[in-house]
Amino acid sequence: MPLLNRNGRFLHVGCGHARLEQTPFASFTWEEVRLDIDPAVAPDLIGSITAMPSVAADSMDAVYSSHNIEHLYAHEVPVALAEFRRVLTPDGFLLLTCPDLRSVAALVAADRLTDPIYRSDLGMITPLDILYGHRSALAEGNHFMAHRCGFTAKVLVGTLQQAGFAQVACRERPNHQDLWAVATNQPWPEGRLREAAAQLFPSGGGR
């Protein structure tokens, strides 16, 4: 049976304005719980990903983190990952995406630091925005948008393994300057992680 063809509950951390229909869980019958540090985005729960006392241990089948960990200082990343593991059920998993600094560095090396490379809900994005945070949002006083660390695929996989995740699958998308990873709280049967990645990772097509 496909991994997500069952009911489940996932914690959407650092959700911003996004809701279920903007997540990889949109096609499935999973319940979404939204958590964000910013009350302005009307989350179900207000809090930081480094401390989530409002979320009970072993209460979530999945945690979905989209472009959050780069907003932390490097020393805070293991703290957040420990919180993710704490709230996951033993059979649960983390789905995480963040910028890929290797592909961004290639653009910088090509002297494209401030060239627009794609359009997001925030407007046009440049390699400079990916490295340090979206400049327009920061100029408007949204300092939550600052980027304080970064990852390549090798570093992301190693960081997840050091945090205690049992298995990790990671995909680089150089044309999109992002990384996707699924990490299990405990070991899964052979092939199940690959199946999860196939269902949850986006295709190589548009943003």
**Number of separate strands:** 9
From the spread of the alpha carbons, the general shape counts as globular
Helix content: 10-25%
Order of helices and strands: EEEEHEHEEHHHEEH
Q: What does the largest sheet look like?
A: 7 strands, mixed
Strand order of the largest sheet: 3-2-1-4-5-9-8
Describe the structure.
By secondary structure, the protein is α/β, with parallel strands linked by helices. It is 24% helix and 25% strand. It has six helices and nine strands, in the order ββββαβαββαααββα. The protein has helices at residues 77-87, 101-109, 127-132, 135-139, 153-162, 192-200; strands at residues 9-13, 31-36, 45-46, 60-66, 88-99, 118-120, 123-125, 167-173, 178-184. The strands form two sheets. The protein has a seven-stranded mixed β-sheet, sandwiched between helices. Strands 6-7 form a two-stranded antiparallel ribbon. The chain is globular, with a radius of gyration of 16 Å.
What topology does this entry show?
Blueprint: E1 9-13, E2 31-36, E3 45-46, E4 60-66, H1 77-87, E5 88-99, H2 101-109, E6 118-120, E7 123-125, H3 127-132, H4 135-139, H5 153-162, E8 167-173, E9 178-184, H6 192-200
Parallel strand pairs: 1-2, 1-4, 2-3, 4-5
Antiparallel strand pairs: 5-9, 6-7, 8-9
Brief summary of the model shown:
The protein is of the alpha/beta class and 207 residues long.
